[in-house]
Amino acid sequence: MANTNIYDVAAQAKVSLATVSRVMNKPEKVNPETRERVLKVIKELGYRPNAIARGLASRKSTTVGIVMSDVSRASTSQLLGGIMDIAKQYDYSLKLFSMPEGEDPKEVVKTVIAEQVDGILFLNDELETNNLNAIINNIKDAQIPIVLCNVIHDDLDVPVVSIDYEKAVYELTNDLINQGKKLIYFVSTVRTYSVNVHKLLGYEKAMKEHGLEPLVFRTSGEVSINKLHFEEFLKNNKIEAAISVRDSIAVSLMNIAINQGIRVPEDMSIIGLQNTKYALLSRPTLTCVDTPVYDIGAVSMRLLTKYMLDEKVEENKVLLPYTIVKRESN
């Protein structure tokens, strides 16, 4: 095939452009199975790298794919701020890919891989564990470096930058118990997202250590839906405290409680786990775990850079420090 180019090779071998480049220039940097697959495709297509192709393969321009669920979320915009500032320092190009609820995540990942990105930052914390595992396996097969950004994964081979959500929620729950509260609810989402599983583990551990029954209430992130859930729930249940996986859900619960004559924090304490703008805009203001979201984005981009440049990585599970910001809701 006279007109075959490096992009054709990458597409047929299902690897990134960077991987084809490494096979041609630094084959020892590529695992044997992938290297043989690429070499086989090169032979089948009759690809002969010329000076121009080699120039493309060694180009300085680097493209990073960013996969997210919803760019409108306050936490997502902060993550992007940290990512973009570091990407600008390295002169990277960024491509954004949305993975909204209801869309097949595997198809979205196929699109990302087909775009020949050099690395992927995965921001979507709204995936069930089985879907997240499938996506990571597909990206690994394509030999594209990936870093999970504010997403938790237990696989030791998967790079993660986040905070220790399990520890943070454990501390919060213990604090509420030490205040004399027993009817403490963990307010989560209907869908079981992987990151929320770790938050729940911290809550359950603290409750069980004090001989208390874990109380979990699941609702929607949509205000119009959770409003109805909370109105009915608060009429029929006594709650002394609530820890919410999202600030927006925590504020929604707070508003409904106040409308029903429940005093916050005198009758019920409410805590969020993000410290977004909603925490400061609510009245009373919301006590939160302060997740350093901007820093998580920036560190994720730096970590991904090391993988893309084949540099040595000392630690691929980076847990940044967090603080608990006490405000008026507790």
What does this protein look like?
With 330 residues, the protein is of the alpha/beta class. 47% of the residues lie in helices and 16% in strands. It is built from 13 helices and twelve strands. It has a six-stranded parallel beta sheet, sandwiched between helices. Helix 5 links the parallel strand 1 and strand 2. It is elongated and about 75 Å long. The chain starts with 5 loop residues before the first helix and ends in a 5-residue tail after the last strand. About 3% of the residues have low confidence.
Main sheet record: 6 strands, parallel
Please work out how many helical segments DSSP would assign: 13
What does the average pLDDT come to? 87
Distance between the termini: 69 Å
| Element order: H for helix, E for strand | HHHHEHEHEHEEHEHEHEHEHEHEE
Query: Could you say which overall geometry the principal axes of the C-alpha atoms support?
Result: elongated
Overall number of strands:
12
Category by helix and strand content: alpha/beta
In a few lines, what is going on in this structure?
By secondary structure, the chain is α/β, with parallel strands linked by helices.
